[in-house]
Amino acid sequence: MQIKYIKLSYFSGIPFLETKPLNNIPKKIYSMEKIFSLFLAVILLASYSSAYSIVNMHEHIMSISEAGKLIAAMDENNITKAVLLGSPAITLYSNAEPGFKGYDKNNDELIKITEKYPDRFIAFPTIDPKDNQKLDKLKDYTKKGAKGLKLYSGHTDFYELALNDSKMHPVYSYLEENNIPIMFHVNGHKYKDEFKAVLNDFPDLVVICPHFCLLSSRIDELRELLHNYPNLYIDVSFGRDPFLIAGVKRLSNNKEEFKKFFEDYSDRILFGTDSVVTDNQKKTKEWLVNVSDCYIGMLEKEKYGCFLVEEELEGLDLSEENLKKIYEDNPKKIFSGKAAQINAKKDENTNFVVGISSIIIVVLVGLLVYFITIKRK
User: Fold this and answer.
1) Yes or no: domain 54-347 corresponds to CATH 3.20.20.140
2) Per-residue model confidence as pLDDT tens digits over 171-211
3) Domain boundaries defined on the chain
4) What residues have CB less than 8 Å from 221, skipping those under 6 apart?
5) Concatenated DSSP letters of 190-203
């Protein structure tokens, strides 16, 4: 491959860019042209990257052994961070006993992962509402760096205690007082009254109800919840393969209804994949990338393909503004509480770099205009 450089040239007084072999660089070349060429090359390289830094708000992982595979898959789609949710054994192991068991072990794995990869992962451990030590465990996990809580008590497979039972009030109060969000798996239709009671009793509690709150087939009920509870969020994940297939088809077949819904509530919707990363042979890096591609295509494209579905699907083709809210801004809002600052120092450094970069760009553009003016004279 012949290495070339970019040169600013003119045709009939109009500036344009041309490339020339590296060994043909003239001995005398304007310094401003050098600066501009370098600047342009950087811009061209940056254009190959995604315009968004995606936060995946819904993921499960078996152990730290799978973290490297997940990071590699995340990098393929510019997913910069992922929220890891504490999981019972039955979510992660095909041969696990039924029931809400083994979650403490997975919680410990999440803490290990976030300690090793603090810039990539955020831990939301889980607790059992029937556990008398649940609040103490939550406080301990928070001290170890957890930024949120995952609850399954609104899941039909794990429902044993009313969502608004007084035994859970100390937990909800602690979360609300410390601005710690909760990922609350709730069947929004079946347990609607109990769920609304929690939201009414703890109005400042930030709640994420995953899988469209299991109301993607009852969109009017979902609209009502979001309208009445301003601290309620949802994520776009559907879950296991059969649910993912049914979900993307549902959105495809009702594109205009869902597009309007996403436009109306773009400031309350989060990106999530719920891939459940395990050592299962099927769950390779490529498989994880393909799952993410289904959700990204659903949000970004007018038409797209999902590896689990034979036919072409209708996407929502959301605006850049709404995509940025879903991918970046809404997670930032959720983690803006005093007890949930994520990489605050890193964000400050990022803002500093962005500020300096903006100044450099302005200076370079000014120099470019000056250079073109001088050359044309």
Assistant:
1) yes
2) 999 999 999 999 999 999 999 999 999 999 999 999 999 99
3) 1-48, 54-347
4) 188, 189, 192, 215
5) TTHHHHHHHHHH-T
